[in-house]
UniProtKB/TrEMBL annotation:
Name of the featured protein: RHS repeat-associated core domain-containing protein
UniProt organism field: Neolewinella aurantiaca
Xref: InterPro entries: Rhs_assc_core, T6SS_VgrG/RHS
Highest taxon above the source species: Bacteria
Annotated PANTHER family: PROTEIN RHSA-RELATED, PTHR32305
């Protein structure tokens, strides 16, 4: 004999397996209540300060298809190679982070598939640990330097995920805006152009060579300023120019990353690698 069975109570665990409140009809997402009928949270995201460009009422940057953090809008870490090619995206609730590792993306992905290495090991051993916001700000500083002809330095400060634009300086100087502090990231450019000296040598500037104490007036050298910031980025040429039979050869444009108080770069990214990393983030936010 066939019998009809009915559940005693309607299932309350609906959207992404979060409990729906019987009285209000809202979903309990842990940090906030969610109204599934209008597709909005009923409170401001606790992580809103980390994502100034986005609405604080969005769920996972407004894209629940590609982003699945149930407590807010924290974005995963992108692991990339030196060319900016995406190797893996790790759900570690580390907002906006980018880890640049040695080796090619295809070979590292094969190692991940074989279990020869873990994403945690890759992030731990990354030569550059920064954020997409910092890379975006660095790319903007480089663009402004190119746009002014390449002889004048530009600067920005990133603090709390917010980019502040500094004042353009005279040659070989620029002003980082705001205050320095333990969480700030300083970004400035070095000159992009090279000239031939009367003696036959070449005068050029490099992002790999911060100005040292004693090379500039007291307190104005890169070495004097670097201890005031969590991370320091210099954009410009990734090396010095050289003289060839056909003229002057210039290295590629890019960015060099320095730790607090360090004058030796942790690593570099070319301009094209920076652009690729930012494309990765655009695809993430667009749901691809």
């Amino acid at each position: 004999m066939l019998r009809e069975y009915k559940a005693c109570n309607q299932n309350r665990y609906l959207s992404t397996h979060h409990e729906r409140d019987k009285d209000t009809g809202y979903d309990n997402r842990g940090a906030r209540l969610y109204d599934s009928e209008i597709g909005r949270f009923l409170g401001v995201d606790a992580l809103a300060g980390m994502y100034a460009p986005f609405s604080p009422y969005n769920y996972v940057l407004g894209n629940p298809i590609s982003n699945t953090d149930p407590d807010g809008r924290s974005v995963d870490t992108d692991i990339v190679d030196k060319d900016g090619v995406l190797i893996a995206r790790v759900d570690d609730s580390t907002p906006d982070h980018v880890a640049v590792v040695d080796g090619s993306a295809s070979k590292i992905q094969q190692k991940l598939a074989n279990g020869d290495v873990t994403t945690e090991q890759l992030i731990s051993g990354a030569k550059i640990k920064t954020t997409a916001t910092n890379i975006r700000a660095a790319a903007q500083v480089l663009y402004r330097t190119e746009n002014n002809g390449g002889d004048y330095e530009e600067a920005s400060l990133v603090e709390g995920g917010v980019i502040s634009t500094g004042e353009r300086g005279a040659q070989e100087s620029a002003t980082v805006p705001g205050r320095s502090g333990v969480n700030g990231v300083s970004i400035h450019s070095h000159g992009l152009n090279a000239t031939e000296d009367p003696g036959g040598g070449v005068r050029s500037y490099s992002a790999l060579k911060p100005s040292l104490t004693g090379q500039k007036p007291a307190g104005e050298a890169d070495q004097d300023a670097f201890p005031n910031f969590l991370q320091n980025i210099i954009v410009g040429r990734l090396g010095n120019a050289s003289k060839t039979s056909s003229g002057i050869s210039q290295p590629k444009l890019g960015a060099a990353f320095y730790g607090r108080g360090e004058v030796k770069p942790q690593g570099t990214l070319t301009k094209s690698a920076m652009q690729q990393i930012l494309k990765n983030r655009i695809k993430l936010e667009a749901g691809f």
